[in-house]
Design goal:
The structure holds two protein chains of two kinds. Chain A is an alpha/beta fold. A five-stranded parallel beta sheet of chain A has the order 2-3-1-4-5, with helices on both faces. The radius of gyration of chain A is 18 Å and the shape is globular. By secondary structure, chain B is an alpha/beta fold. Chain B has eight helices and five strands, in the order βαβααβααβααβα. Chain B has a five-stranded parallel beta sheet with strand order 2-3-1-4-5, with helices on both faces. The longest helix of chain B has 25 residues. Chain B is globular and about 55 Å long. The N and C termini of chain B lie far apart (59 Å). The chains are: A alpha/beta, B alpha/beta. At the A-B interface, α2, α3 and α5 of A face α2, α3 and α5 of B.
């Protein structure tokens, strides 16, 4: 897939591209941090941003339910008690599509490093953990760009429980999957729902090119591992990345910015 | 990449989930000005007078999604895909929270527009036809889908005369078909009409000739309903309590 003239090769899609969107000249890097609630994603994104900026990279960070179009609507819907699982999945997909077109793609075109706190994999995992069909949601979110790098911060349910209890001090309704009531109370439901999510993520990580990071370690160690991997994106060495169905070859860019 | 492992061509892929409930789902489709809402209203009044529990659901009417749709329209911030997705979200909310429970309870649910509207409109907006069909795969298959066939000029004549000013997305202005809003609406509706016609057979629409008189169309709808659902109506469909 490397173009013979050394020109940048366009980023790939998992499925059908968005209609009517100009994908040319996307010079930036798209980096995704995935992982369950309370695993420490936000901390890492914040530190990565500072580090990348210190090295001269312009950074855009974005995350779920932050779109101008649907962000507010999702927050409102989550306050009520009627949001069904398919509706939630599609609402988040709307939010993602809006951010992809209006934030992520323009930033990539401008040569930014886009750090995204969650991507389509969280939308997929939540839907699948709630019993939706995997083939369905994979195709629905298929307009997503294949990122340069996807990290999954993985922790055990036990770790997550202690992070929640020691951190916020109470279980969140949605993070506990209480909309489907997986258990008799918030704790039981949290444990069952998060266990399902971890299983789903593990399966997704096997199909998509996702780098697992053991998030049970201290934040500094995690940060160091992320730094090491991300640095490689900025050095010109050919890499081959697998796509959703294992038959795609990764696009490579020629830029040799030193990280 | 298109799903290469798809066992059947997309044409034969089962769109929708079968209706396993005792209630019945009846939908009407057609371009603006085809008269479908009038006919559905008459049909539902008749069913009510026959003693059945009848419920209504209208396209793009979920309270959960309303603010977002409004914001997107007011600020003209939709792309074809977000337009498609927000309507699917709206539809999912009505299906999960309203249509499905009512069907399970045994009601006759009448829907003014259904997923077919998205299949026609979103494809005209440039969204991939197989993507949007997959998007709505969770929808329950209607027991009856009426399609009101009408020539473009007849429908336009009914609409452009006696109605409020056309709106931006309604007229397909986002597609840059014409700078004149009426002209844009005309072209947009014409393309939607082509999409409806192309799917009519595949989707098993009962086609109603919408150039006929209101009375004749209604008679035809009732005849079709009795022929298709007549035997199953007395068993299981919820009836209003006798006064």
């Amino acid at each position: 897939m490397r173009s013979s003239k050394g020109m940048p090769v366009p980023l790939q899609f998992y499925g059908t591209p968005l209609p009517g969107i100009d994908y040319s000249e996307l010079h930036g890097k798209l980096i995704v941090i995935e992982g369950p609630d309370s695993v420490g994603r936000t901390t890492q994104v914040t530190r990565l941003r500072v580090w990348l900026e210190q090295h001269g990279h312009a950074v855009l960070d974005t995350g779920m339910a932050r779109s101008a179009l649907a962000g507010k609507g999702i927050q409102e819907a989550k306050k009520g008690n009627t949001l069904g699982p398919i509706t939630m999945t599609l609402y988040y997909t709307t939010d993602f599509a809006d951010r992809l077109v209006n934030e992520i793609i323009p930033a990539l075109r401008a040569g930014f490093v886009v750090l995204t706190d969650r991507y389509i994999f969280s939308i997929m995992a939540r839907a699948i953990a709630r019993g939706e069909d995997r083939a369905w949601i994979e195709k629905v979110t298929g307009f997503a760009l294949v990122p340069h790098k996807v990290f999954y911060l993985r922790a055990s349910v036990k770790d997550l429980v202690s992070r929640v209890v020691l951190g916020r001090g109470r279980f969140d309704y949605w993070e506990s999957g209480m909309d489907l009531r997986f258990g008799r109370n918030m704790f039981e439901s949290f444990v069952k729902y998060q266990t399902r999510l971890i299983h789903v993520f593990d399966r997704l990580a096997r199909t998509y090119d996702i780098q697992m990071i053991d998030a049970s370690r201290p934040a500094d160690e995690i940060f160091h591992e992320l730094q090491t991997s991300i640095s490689r994106l900025f050095t010109p060495q050919p890499r081959i990345r697998k796509m959703a169905e294992g038959n795609g070859v990764a696009p490579r860019r020629r830029t040799a910015k030193k990280a | 990449m298109e799903n290469c492992s798809q066992p059947y061509p997309i044409f034969f892929m089962s769109v929708f989930v079968p209706n396993r409930y005792q209630g019945k789902l009846i939908v009407v489709e057609g371009i603006d000005g085809s008269g479908k809402s009038t006919q559905l209203s008459l049909l539902s009044q008749w069913l009510r007078s026959e003693g059945y529990a009848v419920a209504f659901s209208e396209w793009n009417s979920s309270p959960l999604v309303r603010q977002t749709t409004r914001r997107g329209k007011r600020k003209e911030m939709f792309t074809p895909t977000t337009f498609s997705l927000i309507h699917a979200t709206d539809f999912a909310d009505r299906l999960e929270g309203y249509i499905q429970p009512l069907l399970q309870a045994g009601a006759i649910v009448c829907a003014d527009r259904y997923a077919y509207t998205a299949f026609a409109r979103d494809v005209v907006r440039g969204v991939s036809s197989s993507w949007v069909r997959n998007l709505y795969r969770f929808a329950i298959k209607p027991n009856l889908a009426f399609y009101f066939r009408v020539p473009l000029d007849v429908a336009l004549g009914r609409i452009l005369g006696g109605r409020d000013a056309l709106k931006y997305y309604e007229a397909g202005m986002d597609l840059d078909l014409s700078r004149n809003i009426e002209e844009s609406f005309r072209i947009f509706q014409g393309r939607i009409l082509e999409e409806y016609e192309a799917m009519a057979e595949e989707m098993g629409f009962h086609v109603i000739d919408a150039t006929k008189s209101i009375e004749r169309q209604q008679k035809e709808m009732r005849r079709i309903l009795l022929k298709e659902l007549g035997d199953s109506l007395p068993n299981g469909v919820l009836e209003a309590p006798r006064a």
